[in-house]
Amino acid sequence: MSWINVCSEANMPKGTGVAAWVAGRAVAIFNLGNDGLFALDNIDPASGVSLLARGLICEIDGELCVASPLYKQHYRLNTGRCIENDDLVAKPFDIKTEQGNVFVLAQS
Ligand code: FES
């Protein structure tokens, strides 16, 4: 496993997601400002489509979530677990910033 520099923090839009190519897979990265950075596999487990970065951000019972644009399931940003269906998980990735750059921990 290794940390991959995906972009500079200054170039990340706040309050929404972007997709980045990390070691051969699309990762959805969400910049929620003071609430932090989150990274999930961009593939929506319910549909198999690579689109979670395009989902709306919301809060459910105090947990930050992204709503899939396709079937609208909500995935917790910190764990990737689906609110509506315990069997669905969008794989979470470790993410950090260093000296103004955003890094995602690539997994094999
Ligand atoms: S996007 Fe409307 S409640 Fe989650």
UniProtKB/TrEMBL annotation:
<keyword id="KW-0408">Iron</keyword>
<keyword id="KW-0411">Iron-sulfur</keyword>
<protein>
    <submittedName>
        <fullName>Nitrite reductase small subunit NirD</fullName>
    </submittedName>
</protein>
<keyword id="KW-0534">Nitrate assimilation</keyword>
<dbReference type="GO" id="GO:0046872">
    <property type="term" value="F:metal ion binding"/>
</dbReference>
<dbReference type="InterPro" id="IPR017881">
    <property type="entry name" value="NirD"/>
</dbReference>
<dbReference type="GO" id="GO:0009344">
    <property type="term" value="C:nitrite reductase complex [NAD(P)H]"/>
</dbReference>
<dbReference type="GO" id="GO:0042128">
    <property type="term" value="P:nitrate assimilation"/>
</dbReference>
<dbReference type="GO" id="GO:0008942">
    <property type="term" value="F:nitrite reductase [NAD(P)H] activity"/>
</dbReference>
<dbReference type="InterPro" id="IPR036922">
    <property type="entry name" value="Rieske_2Fe-2S_sf"/>
</dbReference>
<feature type="domain" description="Rieske">
    <location>
        <begin position="4"/>
        <end position="104"/>
    </location>
</feature>
<dbReference type="GO" id="GO:0051537">
    <property type="term" value="F:2 iron, 2 sulfur cluster binding"/>
</dbReference>
<keyword id="KW-0001">2Fe-2S</keyword>
<keyword id="KW-0560">Oxidoreductase</keyword>
<dbReference type="InterPro" id="IPR017941">
    <property type="entry name" value="Rieske_2Fe-2S"/>
</dbReference>
<dbReference type="InterPro" id="IPR012748">
    <property type="entry name" value="Rieske-like_NirD"/>
</dbReference>
<keyword id="KW-0479">Metal-binding</keyword>
<dbReference type="Pfam" id="PF13806">
    <property type="entry name" value="Rieske_2"/>
</dbReference>
